[in-house]
Amino acid sequence: MFFKTKNIYNVNTYGAEILKKPSDEIKDVTPEIHKIAEEMILTMQLFDGIGLAGPQYGVHIRIVALAVPAPENPAISPGEALLLPRMPMVIINPEIIAAGETTDTAEEGCLSVPEIFAPVERPQFIQFRAQTIDGELIECECGGLLARCLQHEVDHLQGILFVDRLTKEDFSVIESKLKRLKKSGSRKDFKKTISV
Ligand SMILES: [Zn+2]
Q1: N or C end of the chain: which has fewer CB within 10 A?
Q2: pLDDT band with cut points at 50, 70 and 90 for residue 1
Q3: How far is the centre of ligand 1, averaged over its atoms, from the C-alpha of 3 (Å)?
Q4: How far is the centre of ligand 1, averaged over its atoms, from the C-alpha of 53 (Å)?
């Protein structure tokens, strides 16, 4: 049996310059944007992620792929009720327009910071606005893992990684791992092979 490399999918990782730059707003959802959206969903799924932002995929635009799982707790926020049944999905020009005062702290990871996890404090509830790939305007209150994931992804579009939001103590725990990751290169490849 022979194996043939069909395609290489990659995600930019810690140390890549593109991850530090704010992304541009999308003015028109062109066929090219639709193509990027499809590729981003595929890339996110190949890497087993629940979210992937434009700069991670290598485009400098405000686009995010999401695959947030539904929570076991049925008391979900309006945003989760609206968006979770649509997963996987792509959102365009997402914005956090308000955030509640109550915060919680949970372990986060990131496809751009592979195999490193650390606790991040974030607001529990956010008021969120975005456009779907089909042009539907969404504005809703989100809680749960979706609220955390949206904040993490919108951070990516501002050039911020979750490791930038750690306390000094928590950052010092992962600092040497981050240095090693940076040394190992700024891209992680996923080679999809098919048997022929
Ligand atoms: Zn991330």
Answers
A1: N
A2: very low
A3: 31
A4: 7
The per-residue pLDDT for 2 is 53
Residue whose C-alpha is closest to residue 152's, from 119, 188, 189:
119
CA distances from 54 to 16, 73, 103 (A): 13, 30, 26
What number of residues does the chain have?
A: 196
Would you state the structure tokens that stand for residue 187, as one six-digit string? Answer: 């891209």
Which residues are catalytically annotated? 153
Beta strands in the chain (DSSP E): 3-12, 51-53, 63-66, 89-99, 103-110, 113-123, 126-132, 137-142, 187-195
CA–CA distance, 81 with 84 (Å, rounded to integer) = 6
Question: Could you tell me the domains of the chain?
Answer: 3-187 (3.90.45.10)
